[in-house]
Design goal:
Length: 230
């Protein structure tokens, strides 16, 4: 550098310090530019991956293939190797399996009920046999039953009197709901709450009490038959 030989020692020291400061600033700018460059490279790679997706190499709808910048999918012919949607040829089926283990009382026979076009009653027609077979897996209908408990009092020959206690789960009230029925009502209330019924989770306890009250009101309806006295 021209003129350095003419500078004093103090001037050279000052110049050196200034160059060191400038060098540090430039190094910081270079590091910042490198970080920005890496971020831009990652962003470009992500955009390239997104823009390369189409209906042929992803689950996107075919309508996206016509968007600007989209890469058109390869030929969809049989030789393209593209996996067809749905069940693949040779794949194991997932249908319900047929069973030969059917109880004797679980065969339900169906016969035509309407009269014949000639006017004859088909109930007297000759049975030609079973035409088709259809199996259906079902839960039998469960009906609530009313049980009446009678605690008895007995007298021992020694003179002492003993009364049988009430069974566990039977309160002192004349009529109550059994523990199994109450559990079923609570389940229904929880299902109603979780399915989006008014009240949400905050109203869960109120919903359960409401269901129990409705069940009690239904069971307290006047019976067509008069209750038998003890």
């Amino acid at each position: 550098m021209s003129g350095l030989e003419e500078m004093s020692r103090e001037e050279l020291s000052a110049l050196t310090r200034a160059l060191m400061v400038e060098n540090a600033v430039l190094r910081a700018e270079v590091a910042e530019l490198r970080a920005e460059n890496a971020a831009l490279r990652e962003r470009v790679a992500k955009l390239e991956r997104l823009i390369s997706r189409n209906s042929g190499n992803s689950g996107m709808a075919p309508s996206v293939d016509d968007l600007p910048g989209r890469k058109q999918p390869k030929d969809r012919g049989s030789g393209s190797g593209r996996r067809r949607p749905g069940k693949q040829p040779g794949a194991e089926g997932k249908a319900l399996a047929w069973s030969n283990e059917i109880g004797d009382g679980d065969f339900i026979e169906h016969y035509p009920q309407s009269p014949c076009g000639c006017g004859a009653d088909l109930g007297q027609a000759a049975d030609l046999g079973v035409t088709a077979r259809h199996q259906q897996i079902e839960i039998p209908l469960v009906v609530a039953r009313r049980f009446q408990h009678h605690p008895h009092t007995v007298a021992c020959r020694c003179g002492r009197v003993h009364t049988a206690p009430r069974p566990a789960g039977v309160p002192a009230t004349p009529v109550s709901l059994g523990v199994n029925l109450q559990a079923w009502c609570v389940y229904l209330a929880g299902h109603q709450r979780d399915s989006g019924a008014p009240g949400g989770r905050a109203g869960g306890l109120a919903d359960r009490r409401g269901v129990l009250a409705q069940v009690r009101a239904f069971l307290d309806r006047p019976s067509r038959r008069s209750d038998r006295s003890r």
